[in-house]
């Protein structure tokens, strides 16, 4: 069982650069692929970014590519999502998730992730 806790969200002005953190309760976390997803009101949860356990591979949604950066510090059991040049359409609840079935690759499908955090609200004002 892995528990995940997101932090770092809040109200941000357009163009801002907050960083989200996802802290895991278990050291087994470091073996698996980690993803960030987001869900805006009345919309489905969508993929944002993912990283393999070894950090060799990262994946991004087209909508955030070149603006967001995913990274991880396995020694701290923590994954980060650095968000730059935020836009109002980035407003959503952001979730981190663990895929306990993959190490060398990552999926963009929410159903592939077995453990989820409670989410962190990010609101971007124009």
Write a brief caption for the model:
This protein is mainly beta and about 130 residues long. The chain has strands at about 5, 10-15, 20-25, 35-40, 45-50, 60, 70-75, 80-85, 90-100, 115, 120-125.
Any chance you could write out the topology, listing elements then pairs?
Elements: E1 4-7, E2 10-13, E3 19-24, E4 33-39, E5 46-51, E6 58-60, E7 68-73, E8 78-83, E9 92-99, E10 115-116, E11 120-125
Parallel strand pairs: 2-11
Antiparallel strand pairs: 1-3, 3-8, 4-5, 4-9, 5-6, 7-8, 9-10, 9-11
Provide mean pLDDT, rounded. 93
Series of secondary-structure elements, N-terminal to C-terminal: EEEEEEEEEEE
What are the low-pLDDT stretches, counting only 5+ consecutive residues below 50? none
Q: For the report, how would you describe the main beta sheet?
A: 7 strands, mixed
Question: Count the strands?
Answer: 11
Shape: globular
- For the termini, the CA-CA separation is 40 Å
Fraction of residues in helix: under 10%
Question: What structural class do the secondary elements suggest?
Answer: mainly beta
Question: How many alpha or pi helices?
Answer: 0
Any idea what the radius of gyration is? 13 Å
β-strand percent reads over 45%
Describe the structure.
- This protein is mainly β.
- It contains no helices and eleven strands.
- The protein has strands spanning 4-7, 10-13, 19-24, 33-39, 46-51, 58-60, 68-73, 78-83, 92-99, 115-116, 120-125.
- Strand 4 (33-39) and strand 5 form a beta hairpin.
- The radius of gyration is 13 Å and the shape is globular.
């Amino acid at each position: 069982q892995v528990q995940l806790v997101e932090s770092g969200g809040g109200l941000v002005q357009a163009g801002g650069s907050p960083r989200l953190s996802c802290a895991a309760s278990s050291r087994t976390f470091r073996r698996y692929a980690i993803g960030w997803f987001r869900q805006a009101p009345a919309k489905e949860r969508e993929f944002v970014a993912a990283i393999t356990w070894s950090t060799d591979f990262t994946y991004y949604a087209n909508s955030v590519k070149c603006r967001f950066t995913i990274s991880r510090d396995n020694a701290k059991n923590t994954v980060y999502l650095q968000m730059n040049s935020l836009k109002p359409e980035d407003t959503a609840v952001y979730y981190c998730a663990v895929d306990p079935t993959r190490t060398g690759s990552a999926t963009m499908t929410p159903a592939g992730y077995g453990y989820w955090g409670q989410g962190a609200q990010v609101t971007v004002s124009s």
